[in-house]
Design goal:
Number of helices: 14
Strand content: 15-25%
Strand order of the largest sheet: 17-16-14-13-12-10-19-20-21
Structural class: alpha/beta
Largest sheet: 9 strands, mixed
Helix content: 25-40%
Shape: globular
């Protein structure tokens, strides 16, 4: 008889973990700290608060943590305070974990298999705002990026044709370097890919300024089972968000989100907010990452109040670039190890049809090949760069900038030199169709 288990994390990762966890445990519920999820159900199972876990598990059950890596350590400590046994699910593996001992890394490294699940597509290099710390749109010279460029139909048709033969794809992921919803044909293009593949889920990152009534309706009509709509809203207040995200207007974003939530299919579209925070100047002398946790825990409170239906994730701002308003500090990192498995599970394609090494950082956007000439899976599978990265991961020495290196003990993050006393709201916003221009 299988031991009972509760999956901690009712979001995308938790739902994705369910089939694997069910092979080992009798899953009786999901648990989550987000109270807005308690009245709904995920995959026919109840979503419960952490305080109710013991009622569902009895004396011999276990909690399986299935969340993003940066939250695992604090969730583990929360469960320990409740005297609950727990393990961690990560990309197909269920491993033991202790906050100060870390994971069973050999098992984790060797459990990863080559299976593309996420298709990352650059739709646009156009953006209607200029975040001060953005590595793509800050105004710096950006290698390999051509501003005001859009993906073309020949590239979309090649993607649609080739995804037919990759049954493992489950999600289309739309993010930077530009604002995806600024492409005038984004809906038609993504619908074409979905209609010609087995992909059932779409994740869209947007700054919220382009979440117009027209785009909200299009998102609702996408031919898929689920949409993860992730809004980028930064800082610890509307004023600080507008300061760091030049050209954004919090009032407009709020109105757009509330309207979208009102008209969208609640069973299909989930809202989340990615909240990046430059640390206040008073943190410039800290030495350890845990010293900023109280700030990160509270800085998204204004978003939780305005959007109770959305999950909010706040995190520090890395030193990808260093705006003049900030300085970089180096602090002792958490004990948790950041492990990126994109080299095993994610294929990224830019606006020209290039298969690239990674879509996250501009320093990682090495061109592996082009889908207009060769098959995307063959390019991704056989590239010398990707093979070397996979081999390094299996050997226990993952290579991806600095965040997932087990030997790395430091983290570089941005601190404000001094936030202006008067962070005036952005200029008035004038909407022209899907675009938002400064007035």
């Amino acid at each position: 008889m299988k031991k009972k288990a509760v999956i901690f994390g009712a979001g995308r990762m938790g739902r994705r973990s369910l089939p694997d966890v069910q092979q080992e445990f009798d899953v009786v519920a999901f648990a989550d700290n987000n109270s807005s999820l308690y009245t709904s159900s995920s995959l026919q199972l109840p979503v419960i608060p952490p305080s109710a876990i013991s009622t569902y598990l009895g004396s011999n059950g276990v909690v399986v943590i299935a969340t993003v890596m940066r939250t695992i350590s604090e969730i583990a400590q929360q469960l320990a305070e409740l005297n609950l046994k727990y393990v961690v699910y990560f990309e197909g593996a269920i491993v033991d974990y202790e906050p100060l001992i870390q994971m069973d890394l050999p098992k984790l490294y060797h459990s990863i298999t080559l299976k593309p699940q996420r298709l990352n597509i650059d739709l646009s290099h156009i953006c209607n705002i200029r975040c001060r710390y953005c590595q793509w749109q800050s105004g710096e010279s950006i290698p390999m990026l051509e501003k005001n460029a859009l993906i073309s139909w020949p590239v979309i048709n090649a993607i649609a044709q080739q995804t037919k033969d990759i049954d493992s794809f489950s999600t289309v992921f739309l993010a930077g370097p530009g604002e995806p919803l600024l492409h005038p044909e984004w809906f038609e293009m993504i619908s074409h890919i979905l209609q010609n593949s087995n992909i059932k889920s779409v994740t869209i990152y947007t700054n919220g300024m382009t979440l117009t009534k027209e785009n909200a309706d299009k998102i609702n009509r996408l031919p898929c089972n689920r949409v993860e709509l992730t809004l980028s809203i930064d800082g610890d207040s509307p004023e600080s968000s507008e300061f760091w995200r030049k050209g954004s207007c919090y009032t407009t974003i709020k109105q757009n989100i509330l309207f979208a939530h009102e008209v969208m299919n609640k069973d299909k579209v989930r809202f989340s907010i990615n909240n990046t925070c430059v640390l206040p100047a008073k943190y410039k002398h800290i030495t350890h990452y845990w010293e900023i946790k109280p700030f990160l825990t509270s800085c998204g409170d204004y978003l939780r109040k305005d959007f109770p239906f959305a999950s909010v994730s706040s995190h520090e701002c890395y030193d990808t670039i260093e705006p003049v308003e900030t300085e970089t500090i180096c602090v002792e990192d958490m004990k948790t190890i950041f492990l990126c498995t994109k080299r095993f599970h994610s294929i990224a394609i830019d606006i020209w049809g290039n298969v690239i090494g990674c879509n996250c950082a501009r320093s990682e956007r090495s061109v592996l090949g082009n889908i207009l000439h060769d098959n995307m899976y063959d390019i991704w599978r056989d590239s010398e760069l990707m093979v070397a990265r996979r081999d390094a991961f299996k050997a226990g020495t993952p290579q991806c900038r600095c965040l997932d290196n087990p030997k790395n003990k430091k983290r570089s993050i941005l601190v404000s030199k001094c936030l202006p006393e008067d962070t005036k709201p952005a200029k008035s916003q004038v909407h022209y169709g899907a675009r938002t221009l400064l007035g």
